[in-house]
Amino acid sequence: MLILSCSSKLQLLEATLRRRLPETLQVHGAVMTINCGNPAAQEVLVDSWPDFKAVLTRPRKEVALDGSDFYTNMYAAYYRDLGAYRALLSSAVNWNQAFCIHGLRDGLYEASRDIANTKGVKLEVFRYFTYFHPDPNTLPEIQLDPAVRLSTLDVSHLDLMNEMWPYGGNKYSKRFLERLIRHFPSFCLLDSAGHLLSWTVSDPYGAMGRSVTMPEHRGRGYNGVLNNLIAKRLHALGYPSYGHVAVDNYPMQRLQERQSFQRQPNLCHFILHNAALHRTPTLTPSPAPGKAPA
User: Fold this and answer.
1) Fewer Cβ atoms within 10 Å of its own Cβ: the N or the C terminal residue of the chain?
2) Same domain membership, residue 128 and residue 33
3) What SS3 state is found at 198?
């Protein structure tokens, strides 16, 4: 196993991953974040170099490590060889802590399950569709409702975001959201008094998402506005424009398809390991009423 920190090697890895988009989406986004020197990301672990067989990326650890914080103890995976990935997963991860690992490749869950069984670790798995837009510049210009104002998130919004985020509501999620606000692109819509109506923020893997609209303001197209804007912003920064949607969130799936995002063939798995070390948030929000796509 190699741990990459040299900028020239990271740039070479980034270029290799870019040629394999969109299947490398999450790991590519993390490597770009590291190459940009972002303090919210730390290292890449590679099975072999330069013709790597498996890659794991993980965000920066807090100074005071907390083994129950699976928001911080988070990994993304890409591999060409499932056996190499299993070997890397066995050797590069601290299985005594709570952590989340995610990726788009077939066999990801089965690899975690098999190793977890040998270690007595309990898993929880959540499945998402991944949507990718090849060229967000083709998205139409957005006409904002004159009653709302476009802005970016700041830490004054943190408490409300943590309360309303279906995956949040605890001290770990609050700390995680604060890092996203401080270090990653975001947009929000405010009313005339400056109150939050709707918001979206990207993550350490370059993914769109973590979008919420206050219940009393839903059905007004705010998610579509922010989805359009964050896709264009990430594209302008050189990131692929992609995000994850819960498999039963039919309204958001229809929104992605209306905006010409392409659903990827493989499901994205978010796998929580040792989640019982801390209260598990509700990771799959209930969708608004609607019919499943055909």
Assistant:
1) C
2) yes
3) strand
